[in-house]
Structure formats: C-alpha cells, structure tokens
Amino acid sequence: MFGVFHGLFAKKKSVSSIGVGSPRKPEETNDERQSQSQSDHERRKQISVRGIAQVENVTNIKKTFNRHLHFSVIKDRNVATPRDYYFALANTVRDHIVSRWIRTQQHYYEKDPKRVYYLSLEFYMGRTLSNTMINLGIQATVDEALYQLGLDMEELEEIEEDAGLGNGGLGRLAACFLDSMATLGIPACGYGLRYEYGIFKQFIKDGWQTEEPDDWLRFDNPWEKARPEYMLPVNFYGRVEKDDDGKSKWVETQLVFAMPYDTPIPGYQNNVVNTLRLWSAKAENHFHLKFFNDGEYVQAVMDRNTSENITRVLYPNDNMFVGKELRLKQQYFLVAASLQDIIRRFKSAKYGCRDLLRVDFSTFPDKVAIQLNDTHPSIGIPELMRLLVDVEEISWDAAWEICQKTYAYTNHTLLPEALERWPVSLIERLLPRHLEIIYKINHCFMKTVQERFPKGEERLRRMSIVEEADQFGEKRINMAHLCIVASHVINGVAALHSNLLKSHTFKDFYEMFPEKFQNKTNGITPRRWLLLSNPMLADLICEKIGDSWITNLDELQKLKQFKDDQTLLRELRRVKMENKLRVAKYLKEEYDVSINPSSLFDIHVKRIHEYKRQLLNILHVIALYNRIKENPEIEMVPRTVMFGGKAAPGYHMAKLVIRLVTAVAETVNNDPIVEDKLKVVFLENYRVSMAEKIIPSADLSEQISTAGTEASGTGNMKFMLNGALTIGTMDGANVEMAEEMGLENIFIFGMNVKEVEELQSQYRAEDFIAESPTLKRIIEEIEAGMFTPEDPGQLKEVADMLRTNDRFMVCADFDAYIKCQDKVAEAYLDQEKWTRMALMNIASTGKFSADRTIAEYSREIWNIEPNAERLPAPYEGVPESGEATKE
C-alpha cells in the first residue's frame, strides 16, 4: 500500500549525463536492460512492502513528466539541467494533488463544517516532494518511472530547497500539526507569512558561526499558488478619532496589501488536501504624487520597498527598537489579513453560492476555531474585537463573548524572557485603535478580578495585562495575559510544562480560571519522521506488524512481544548500521571527517541556547579527551559526538558555545593519540532535510535541558521513534517518555524541577566546581586557551560564565551527567541489550504521534470530531469543477 525509498545517499547515475528516456548504458542490449530491470524489481521487493508499481501508472507518470519538461519548464533533454528535471517532477506530482485539493474544498463548502484556523508566525516545512508522494501513495510509481527515464530520484530530491520558515521546534511542530490535521480529515487551514528569506543559512568560518540570507525562493517554488483575487488591505499607524456617537474610528492609516500564496497539505492516502495560506506584503498600487512632483521617483519606489519589508525576513533580531517594530508589524500583518479572510469565508460558506449568507455573528464560534501558536499572533485578539465592534457594529459584550469562544492559546515556553511584552508606546504608534481595545479589555478584566478577590491589590498588579512602568518609564502589554483572558482554553505542551504553568507561571490565572487550563503533549508526524526518513526501519516494522501504525502509532506497542526475537533484534542492528554507514559517508563528503561507523553515535541537534545545555555535552567530550590523553591505551567505547543547531545572530553566549565545540572538534579530530576513540562534528546549517538523514543513525539522543526549562521538545520523540536511546533530565516530554518506555530503557540524570527550585536561591557554581576535580580542570583548560592556542583568551567568557553566571546549573549537574554517560558506554558494550532497549523505545512512541495530539485538540478544544473516512478520489462521483470553489 505504501512505498519507501531505498538508499538515502545511494547514487545511481548523474542526471546531467543521461537524457530523459535514454537507456542507462548505450552498449546494453534490450535483453540485458530487461534483465537489469527485473533484478531491480526483485531488489525493491526485498527491501519494501510496497511491491511493484503498476505498468500503466508508470507510463502515465513518464508521459506527464515529459509534458511538464516541455510545456512547463520549456526545455528538452539536450539542454535540461537537474533543476529542470526537479521542476518537471514537482509539477508531475502536483498534478496528483490539484483535483484532490479542489474536491476537498468543495466538500467543505458542501458540508459547511466547523473549521480550524491555525495561526503561527512559523511553519518549518522542510522539503515537500517526498512527503507529498508518500501521502498520495504514488512514490513507488514515480520512483519506477524516473528509473526508466534514467534519472536519479535521490539527486532530484536534494535539489529542493528547505522551506525554512521557522527557527526550530515551534515551526516544525506547526508543520507536523498540519500533516496530522489533513490525515485526520479535519477542516483546517494554516495561516502564516511567506518570508522571502527564511531562517538564515549557517556557515562555520574560522570556527565561528556566520550567517547568510536564505533566499529559498530564488529558483521559484513549484508547490505554491498565488491568489491575487483574495489580496486584502492591512492598515498601520494613523490615529483614532471619535464620531458624534462617541464611537472610535481608525483614520489616516498607512496601507499595505496582503497577497495570499496557497500550499497544498495532503493527508495520508485519504484524498484530503488542506491549505497552508502564507501572506506576502505588497505595496499600494499607486505612487505618492508628491514625490513625482518633486522629481523623487526613486524615493517613491523605495517607499514601496519599505512596505514590502514586512515579509522580507523571518524574525529580525529584536535587540534594537527598529527590529521590534518590524516584528510587531509582522505579527499584526498576519492576523489582520487572516481574520479578514476567515470572516469572508464565514460569511459566504455555502458551496456554489457567492452571495453573503451569514450576517449573524452569534454562530461564529460554532463555525470557527482559531488556535494561537504561542503569543506571536496574540494581537489578533484586539483585531477581532475591532472588526466585530467597529466594522460589523456588534456590541462590545457580544463581541467579547464571540472572541472568547473562538480563540484558544498554546503556550510554548517557561522562560520569562520569552514571554512577549510589547512597549505601550510602540503599540500606540503602530496600532492606536488596538491599544484602546486592550485598555478596555484590561479595565473590564481588572473589575472582574477585584470582584472575585476584593482585597487582592497585589494580585491585581500581577494579573494586569498592562504592566506598570519599568525602570525606563515604559509601560508594557503582557501578551500572554491577554491570551489567557481572551481564550476559552489555554494549554501547555507536556504534562510537566502544563503543571508548571498552573503552579508557577500563570498561578493567579489558574486559581481564577481552572477550567480553562489543559495539557496537550506535543507529537510528531510518523509519516515524515519514520516512513520518509527511515524507510528500512519502516519496512522492517511493516514485515512484523503490518502498516496500520502509519496512521495509528499506538500499533507499535505490538513490537514489544518481539523483544526477545533474535532475528528481529539482528535486523534492527543491521538497519541501524546501514543508516550509520550512510551518515559516515555523508560526513566524509561534507566535512572531510572520517568516523568509525561502529562507534556510538551521540547526537545533540537543536537550537543553540544556554538552557538546552550544549555546553554540558561538550564539557563531557573534553572529559573523555582528557581520559584518552592521560592513558592513550585506555579501552573505551568509541564515540562520535555530533552537534547541530543555529544560534540567534545576536546571542553572544550561544555563539561562544559553537566556537567551543568547533575548537574542541579541531583539537580532538587532529590528535593522533585519539585515533577512532573519539570524534566531534559540528553539523553546519542543520535543518529539516539534514535531520531526516541524521536522526535515523543516532544511537544516543541528548535531551539535557535544565529541569523546568524545556516546555516539551519534539526532537526527543523523533530520536525515540527511530530507535535511539535518550540521555536526559526529567524535563519536558522526557518525563512522559520515561513513563511510556520504563526507566530501565532511558538514561535519566540530574536534578528534577523541585531540586532545581530549592537550589536556585542559594546556587553557587564555584561550590560544585570545587567538589569536582574533573570540572575544575576542564574550566581551567578552556580559560588557558588549550583549544584555541592561536588566541588563548578567546573562550575565557565561557569559563567566567560557568563560575559566576551559571544560570542553567551546568556545574550542578556535571558530575551526575558524567556518571550517566559512563552507564551509557557500559550499556552499549552489550549490543543485544542495547538493541532490546531501542526496540522498547520504538514500541513506546504511540503517545507521541501528532495524530494523537491533534485528535485531543480537536475533541477537547475545537469541538470537532476527527474523520477517518477517505474522501472520494478525484475520478469518483461528480465531475470536478474549480468554478464553484471559493477558498
């Protein structure tokens, strides 16, 4: 039923040297080619349960491919480049989406269900081609067609740019959720921004991170469709004036237009194709005549460019005021365009009818659920109130009731500095009417709090949306408080995280609104993170338990009955080694680092941040290096330690951590005494497509954040699903992972949340350094420039931070981490036991499917029942027609 690609890094023959449809070797006879094709089919049958592609479907794919090469790309095989072939392939695959996409929207308009709108400033989609083929169930056919055309599927896949419209976990979660919503048949639409430049490309130069723009659209994007007919106006600045009735009116604004670009989101083999709508900023159509009169044509053009800067780049560095203004502009631009679009769709919901049907907004929450992915889209709360009160002329109380029933808010962080607080002066200048609305919301809320807690003056201050002036005399709007007050549900993203929100971060609000708070533990899509990224493991699982796990990950529990099956354990080891060999080849080609594939692959890949404690990991690497230097004959488990992730451009300490990692890597990898015992690699420009290569090869997953700082994490789930064991603290989703698999199958170390809290007020890193000779020595080596002899003081700040400003208690957990890593090495020596633990990890991942997460959101927050039924295929039932579809 499903297909998986073999040979993640396997190369057939260069596209540039083979024309479309040409034989693979000119000297081969027809019989030889037929024999080769048959043997290839046999090889595929051995590694995949998908079987053989149907001949007529293969023929149709080849015809469509050649048609697109000629009529879409406008090339022939004599001049076509590999990129041309990729675009022809993408268009061929997209043809299989289009009818399903149209039919899905027709179905929604016919049934008029409640719809979910997922608002997020980030969607870290990665590549689309392979995921689309898997979800449509056509990858076997396409793979065979390309093979017959003499083209290399893997090479074409590598040409596609990652759609890096996110910084990390937040955006990748949104992408997984879209996949699950489509797979569960939920009428949903994602709304985001079409950044011209996504997350920056990271390069390591002289050991330091450098950033270059990610111009991901420079070769065009075959997966999106511009919808200029739905372009919408968005206003900024201006002032508020009162009319004769005392009603507020926002006037003299600056106008920018929002152009929608739609990307199809196919569910897994259910013919459902939802939409991700991304907005791009466009300037007004007319120039300012003043500039023409003054002869300032260039100035007029530059002003247009300023307007379009809103969607130029993903999240600028917000250390400067200008950056903050642009970021707030991005947030408002997203919600202003999206809410107009949502209301338009609400008003004209019936299939085939273009007249406005609904004018009664009391039913709005029955047809619309809006999920706020963190506080970034929270300015949508006053915007919805403005649209309802000022535009639709609904009373304040009625509008507020609609608002509260419509919005739900997901919190993603426990770090105080990550909770958004916008300066009042900035909102007043950029969105004056919205500030009025926020003040009124806060005024009404403060009255409610005072009635509930008559003597709670301090509570009023703590719970106010408008915070008192800081040391600079600046009042701020607490956007998390605004979300809590205006939403009917607030959820955390792991059980521990949700409990900490209730007991600490939002304690006052929980005491007032306990019914609003829920937990929705995060999840990942098994389609991308197992079926696509680890096809050999997917095939092995299917051989044992069938393929129903693809849409019901709980089915993996069945693998537990095979924990003593020597044949399966041996096959698991074989699959892991195959994946490690491919990564070893990749590292040699990309980084010129030779590694031992039999070594323990110890992998730490995530955004570089102090709380994620990459620093703790590299300190352990230095400890291992010191052991080898002291005793070159020491017997130890060979280990390859990989780091990957990006530091925010303005985050100095995170960049210093990267520099320390690269300095240690250079020292260790070039020391002949070390040999194969230890290797360190920094994976430059880590991204979704790289994760799909690296994660299947991992033996050990590093999830070592300070307890109480990581909301959930999803990388931990991806590694678990792919059979890596976890070393981690009792933080985020690690707690629930341990519960699911059993503590005997995970390596837990360090302080728990309660112990961290108890130590916090009296924590002195120097006390722990003094008690640990190993740590003391390492810090002194860093300080002395052992790893940066050309500039000995280069990393002194890291040593100083550990001694005097160790906010995330690296020193406190160091000895426990070293001891736990020694247990990891000991366990790795017993490969049968290790593989059994890996199997128990895989078999315990059912809870961490995004399908389960979204089903819970759907039933418990959005009040929508997931639909397991397939929609009719495009060729079933009524003829397709795009004319009546209004999306």
From TrEMBL:
Keyword annotations from UniProtKB, A to Z: Carbohydrate metabolism, Glycogen metabolism, Glycosyltransferase, Pyridoxal phosphate, Transferase
Domain of life, source organism: Eukaryota
Catalytic activity of the protein: [(1->4)-alpha-D-glucosyl](n) + phosphate = [(1->4)-alpha-D-glucosyl](n-1) + alpha-D-glucose 1-phosphate
Keyword flag Glycosyltransferase: yes
GO molecular function: glycogen phosphorylase activity; pyridoxal phosphate binding
Keyword Metal-binding recorded: no
Cofactor requirement: pyridoxal 5'-phosphate
Gene Ontology cellular-component terms listed: cytoplasm
E.C. code: 2.4.1.1
A Pfam cross-reference name: Phosphorylase
UniProt similarity note: Belongs to the glycogen phosphorylase family.
Name this polypeptide is given: Alpha-1,4 glucan phosphorylase
Lineage: Eukaryota, Metazoa, Ecdysozoa, Nematoda, Chromadorea
